[in-house]
Specification:
With 530 residues, the chain is mainly alpha-helical. It contains 21 helices and 7 strands. It has a 5-stranded parallel sheet, with helices on both faces. Strands 6-7 form a two-stranded antiparallel sheet. A hairpin with a 2-residue loop joins strand 6 and strand 7. Helix 12 crosses helix 16, helix 13 crosses helix 14 and helix 14 crosses helix 18. It binds flavin-adenine dinucleotide and iron/sulfur cluster. The site of flavin-adenine dinucleotide (FAD) has 28 residues, from helix 10, helix 12, helix 14 and helix 16. The site of iron/sulfur cluster has 15 residues, from helix 13, helix 17 and helix 18.
Length: 530
């Protein structure tokens, strides 16, 4: 039987030319870090660090996904004969942080050079740089070819503009990739079928939705699950349903399953929500792409081909492709252009902590109970659940952006800071003052009622802003407009909403502000600590 190495070394150490550093979200054998790799002289370094799991209180499924995918990647490298210096979480000598582990590895291996693909998080990049410097090692940071746009591409797009808009960036990406193009023009005559992506289900719901392909935990994953249950017992989330892809092979299978079975309805129901239906027609591919198990080019190519053979309408293929070559690339551009200042932005001066129920789902608001409950069960919620339920409530309540950012970074299996932060701070909290979005996504409970069945099962009424059944979302919506009136008046696209707020009689406005304050007073804000 093949013995699985248990300590830091998968082969006896010896002199190392290049030590290739591979982080948990860089699991791509074709990445630039491996350019010129020579198994005879070079080695790979990987480390499981508790510090990465608990600098925000990560969902257990998020920790399992990263550790299991890393261990599978290490196995694949070792099977190729690559020397891997791998530190497991449970190794008694594990020092707990990437920086300390790297310095220790440098002391033992004395590599001539460290090579890494640009990390996806500003903090990690700085830590690695500092650790290399302290160890006296040369560090080469290589470009991340996983992405279709380089930092220079984004800077060329953004340079000189007062306001960035995803739509124009996206058109450039369509031209660059040639996807869904008929010569210089977009296929079908329109760049964007967003308006066709906002359907709600009929009253009786979505009916039978094809279940996504499921990957039962193998022995490596089961071992990690046991470790996480023990080591991170107090962390949020359940492992009951863990079935995420942890290898490139599984990620490819998940892509094929999505394209064959759900893409054809992804377009119309992208924004719809339904009780007990966490996946609906979504792809569940974000974690595979973010860990680099799946190349985004493969994903968009598969969608374009499905449209080509008429198994997906243009609005479905375009909607999916827009999310990947548009939004995903755009948020990365925003992250690196505006960090490190971005993380501290708070344009609306929000000042409240995060309500405790974000960690427990114990609230009478059915929409929040459902979305947070599902998040804790699966480590997943789709975009509109994140933007228009949990994000919307925090925005209108007035939660400090950095606090809600910590939550999103902790609870989703796909959470990596370059993609999570601009979506949270920019798109959902408008904390960047309009870099990401042209206006805050503020809405009453009627939006949630239109897009879901949540309100039917709720003790509140989305149409009411007074009395015992007043919907907290609807109360907070008017309070948000009144409270931030001066700041919002500078945003041209807020004109209509502000004019409606101005129509409220002064006494009614005062009453709404009082009700919103009472609502805040009733919320438990005790901090969650694992
Ligand atoms: P689908 O709905 O099937 O979409 C297909 C793909 O498009 C996704 O896999 C994803 O890679 C990409 N995509 C879609 N929307 C976005 C977007 N707004 N930004 C970037 N890529 C997008 N996505 C993450 O990958 N990690 C995060 O940590 C994350 N945090 C978010 C926080 C907030 C507050 C919001 C509003 C959105 C966040 N998103 C994040 C974006 C989006 O919600 C997820 O990418 C999506 O829900 C993942 O599910 P899926 O793979 O089924 O996506
Ligand atoms: Fe949410 Fe209000 Fe609808 Fe209840 S009534 S589910 S709180 S939007």
């Amino acid at each position: 039987m093949k013995r699985r190495p248990t300590s830091a070394e998968s082969r006896t150490p010896g002199p190392v030319r290049n030590l290739v550093l591979v982080l948990g979200d860089q699991l791509d054998r074709r990445s630039s870090a491996f350019d010129g790799f020579d198994a005879g002289q070079d080695a790979v370094w990987m480390a499981e660090a508790a510090g990465e799991a608990d600098y925000v209180p990560s969902h257990k499924a998020r920790i399992v996904l990263f550790l299991s995918a890393m261990r599978h990647f290490r196995e694949a490298l070792a099977a190729e004969g690559v020397r891997v210096h791998y530190r497991r979480l449970e190794d008694p000598e594990n020092r707990g942080t990437l920086a300390l582990e790297l310095r220790a590895a440098c002391r033992v291996l004395k590599p001539r050079k460290l090579v890494i693909v640009e990390p996806g998080e500003w903090r990690v990049r700085e830590d690695i740089r500092a650790a290399a410097k302290k160890a006296g090692a040369d560090l080469e940071i290589r470009q991340d070819r996983h992405f279709l746009a380089t930092h220079e591409d984004f800077d060329r797009f953004a340079g000189g503009k007062k306001q960035l808009r995803m739509e124009f960036f996206y058109r450039g990406m369509r031209r660059k990739t040639g996807l869904l193009m008929a010569g210089e023009k977009p296929e079908g005559g329109r760049w964007n079928y967003d308006a066709d992506n906002r359907g709600a289900f009929p009253k009786e719901g979505p009916g039978k939705v094809p279940a996504p392909v499921s990957f039962l935990p193998d022995s490596i994953t089961r071992e990690v699950m046991e470790l996480v249950e023990k080591r991170f017992a107090a962390h949020p989330g359940s492992l009951r349903h863990f079935d995420w892809p942890v290898t490139p092979g599984q990620a490819g299978k998940a892509l094929r399953d999505f394209v064959e079975n759900r893409l054809f309805l992804f377009g119309p129901y992208q924004d719809a929500l339904w009780t007990g239906q966490p996946w609906l027609y979504h792809s569940r591919l974000s974690s595979s792409m973010n860990l680099k198990l799946l190349d985004p080019r493969e994903a968009v190519q598969a969608a374009a081909e499905a449209h080509g053979r008429r198994s997906a309408a243009l609005a479905c293929a375009e909607g999916f492709i827009r999310q990947i070559i548009g939004w995903r690339e755009y948020v990365r551009g925003v992250y690196w252009r505006y960090m490190p200042d971005y993380i501290g932005m708070n344009a609306l001066g929000a000042s409240l902590p995060l309500p405790s129920f974000y960690w427990t789902a114990q609230t009478e608001m059915q929409c929040l109970r459902e979305v947070i409950g599902q998040t804790l069960e699966y480590g997943y919620a789709h975009h509109i659940q994140r933007l228009m339920v949990t994000g919307l409530f925090a925005l209108m309540l007035g939660v400090v952006p950095r606090e809600i950012h910590r939550w999103y970074l902790a609870v989703y299996v796909d959470a990596v800071e370059w993609v999570e932060l601009p979506n949270t701070l920019g798109m959902s909290q408008f904390a960047d003052g309009g870099i990401m979005a042209s206006k805050p996504y503020a809405a009453t409970g009627k939006y949630i009622d239109r897009m879901s069945d949540y309100c039917r099962q709720c003790r509140y009424d989305p149409a009411r802003t007074d009395g015992g059944s007043a919907c907290p979302f609807s109360v907070l919506y008017w309070d948000f407009l009144l409270r931030n009136r001066d700041r919002l008046a500078r945003i041209p696209r807020m004109g209509l909403q502000l004019r409606n707020a101005d129509r409220l009689a002064p006494a009614e406005g005062r009453a709404i502000r009082r009700r919103a304050d009472a609502l805040r007073d009733a919320i438990d804000f005790r901090e969650y600590r694992p």
